Amino acid sequence: MRLGDTKMEKGSEREYRENGMGIKWYEAKRFLVTSLRNPLNVHMVDFDEYDGYGECSCEYFQFIIGPKLKQGKKPFKKCRHLRSAKRAMENIQTSSD
Q1: 51-96 residue pLDDT tens
Q2: How far apart are CA 29 and CA 14, in angstroms?
Q3: Residues near 96 by Cβ (< 8 Å), separated by ≥ 6?
Q4: Sign of dihedral through CA atoms 23, 55, 26, 91?
Q5: Which residues contact 55 (CB under 8 A, 6 or more apart)?
Q6: What is the pLDDT of residues 19-53, one digit of tens each?
Q7: What is the DSSP string of 16-63?
Q8: pLDDT attached to residue 92
Q9: CA 24 to chain CA centroid, nearest Å
Q10: Residue 12: what pLDDT?
Q11: Tens digits of per-residue pLDDT, 2-14?
């Protein structure tokens, strides 16, 4: 994690804060990520979709990344929610080892 990031645990739930976004482990490979611009807006990130690439409910993914993946193309970049949730998932996996 980067400087200024925090890890919070509430019971069995794991929550992270990164670059102003809250990342909460939801289930299996799914995370809830708060929007950076609007903290009341929460996006679902699911890493079981698109052969492990992941899917996000944000507009950038739905209108830019998703259509490319459906065409079989690998997008140049991921949305910030996918990147942040991926780092949180890696931290969860390394802390449970």
Answers
A1: 999 999 999 999 999 999 999 998 989 999 999 999 988 887 777 6
A2: 13
A3: none
A4: negative
A5: 45, 46, 49, 61, 66
A6: 778 889 888 899 999 998 888 999 999 999 999 99
A7: EEETTEEEEEEETTEEEEE-SS-TT-EEEEETTSGGGT-EE-SHHIII
A8: 76
A9: 9
A10: 42
A11: 333 434 344 445 7
Give the single-character DSSP code of 12: T
Could you give the dihedral angle defined by the CA atoms of residues 89, 92, 93 and 97, in that order, rounded to the nearest 10 degrees? Answer: 170
The amino acid occupying position 11 is G
What own/partner pairs with CB < 8 Å and gap ≥ 24 does 23-31 have?
23/84, 23/85, 23/88, 25/88, 25/89, 25/92, 29/89, 31/85, 31/88, 31/89
Residue type, 32: L
